[in-house]
Write a structure and sequence with these properties.
Layout: E1 2-5, E2 20-23, H1 48-52, E3 57-62, E4 65-71, E5 77-80
Antiparallel strand pairs: 1-2, 1-3, 3-4, 4-5
Amino acid sequence: MLIICVDHRKPGGPSMQGVMRHPLLQLKPPVARTARAPAATPEDAVDSAALLRGQREVLIRHGGEVYRLRHTRNDKLILTK
């Protein structure tokens, strides 16, 4: 999985210039689809600050699609395709 942080502070709005690319946190190896994955527990939670890394928005690539995770002024997280 690759997360792309978009820097909106540059004049002219967001651009792909200056985009930081970094691998996501250390993830557990994928579970085989034939086995049912255990339910997530509070100990498995990832802190939003670790995902956003000081940005207001990150792009998340998953299953060939790109999703946008935004941190709003009202302190909400919104995930859109």
